[in-house]
Amino acid sequence: MNMEQFAQDGQDIKIIEKLITKVQDMLTPGEKIDYIAVQKKPAVTILPDSITISNKRIFMCEFTKLGLATDFEIFGWQDIKDIAFKEEIFGSKVTVIPFTGENLSIDYIPKVQARKLYQYIKAALENYKKAELAAEKEKIVIAPSNPREVIVEKAEIVLPTPAPVPVPTQIPTTPAPAAQPIVSAPVVPPAAPVAAPAVEEEDDEITLKLKKLKTLFDKQLITQDEYEQKKREVLSSL
Question: Is 74 helix (H, G, I), strand (E, B) or coil?
Answer without folding.
Answer: strand
